[in-house]
Amino acid sequence: MSQFKVIIVGGGPTGLTAGHCLGKAGIDFEILEARPDLDFPGGTTVAIWSQNVRVLDQLGLMDEAYSMCAPIMDKLNILPDGSKLARNNLPSLTGILLVQSPRATFLALIEVPLVLDMNGSM
Ligand SMILES: Cc1cc2nc3c(=O)[nH]c(=O)nc-3n(C[C@H](O)[C@H](O)[C@H](O)COP(=O)(O)OP(=O)(O)OC[C@H]3O[C@@H](n4cnc5c(N)ncnc54)[C@H](O)[C@@H]3O)c2cc1C
């Protein structure tokens, strides 16, 4: 391991994914997260679209993602007046199975060691 160390600010999906990539490349890193924990009230469902499925696959996490997350089969776009804009079967459209999960579940999937509560410690 070199003396070089990457500091990542923020332990959201981007920061945790960057940590995985750096870890795989053998580059030392530290993730600093302002919140005391990764989950927060009002979390939303995260849909993992095809480009992110590719990234998870490259990180070797896709089998785990399929076991932790629910598949997305149909996508329905609805206009504000309630009329239907489009309906797509995503596996046939993208050629892969996309998945969704609560944000906390997704963050647990990609969690790497990080320093929490930076606001409290600053
Ligand atoms: C309602 C809603 C639905 C969404 N649905 C989807 C979806 O289905 N699929 C999808 O891919 N995306 C979705 N998104 C977008 C999603 O929020 C982003 O893809 C994702 O959160 C981006 O991750 P991020 O790590 O870049 O940023 P964030 O998730 O915002 O994470 C940033 C992290 O950095 C921390 N931070 C910020 N400043 C500092 C600091 N100075 N020091 C230390 N820590 C700091 C924050 O506390 C936070 O934990 C949705 C967004 C919303 C609002």
Can you characterise this structure?
The protein has helices at residues 13-24, 50-58, 62-68, 90-94, 103-109, 118-121, and strands at residues 5-9, 28-32, 45-48, 70-72, 74-78, 84-89, 98-102. With 122 residues, the chain is an alpha+beta fold. It has a single domain (5-116), classed as FAD/NAD(P)-binding domain. The structure holds flavin-adenine dinucleotide. Flavin-adenine dinucleotide binds next to helix 1 and strand 3. Flavin-adenine dinucleotide binds at residues 9-15, 32-35, 44, 46-47, 118.
Can I get a quick summary?
This protein is α+β, with helices and mostly antiparallel strands. Helices cover 36% and strands 27% of the residues. The protein is built from 6 helices and 7 strands.
From the 3D coordinates, which CATH architecture would you assign? 3-Layer(bba) Sandwich
User: How many angstroms separate the termini?
Assistant: 28 Å
Number of domains: 1
CATH superfamily: FAD/NAD(P)-binding domain
The major sheet is characterized as: 3 strands, antiparallel
Proportion of helical residues = 25-40%
Strand percentage lies at 25-35%
What's the total count of β strands? 7
CATH topology, what is it called?
Answer: FAD/NAD(P)-binding domain
Q: Which strands sit side by side, in order, in the main sheet?
A: 3-7-4
Counted by DSSP, the helix tally is: 6
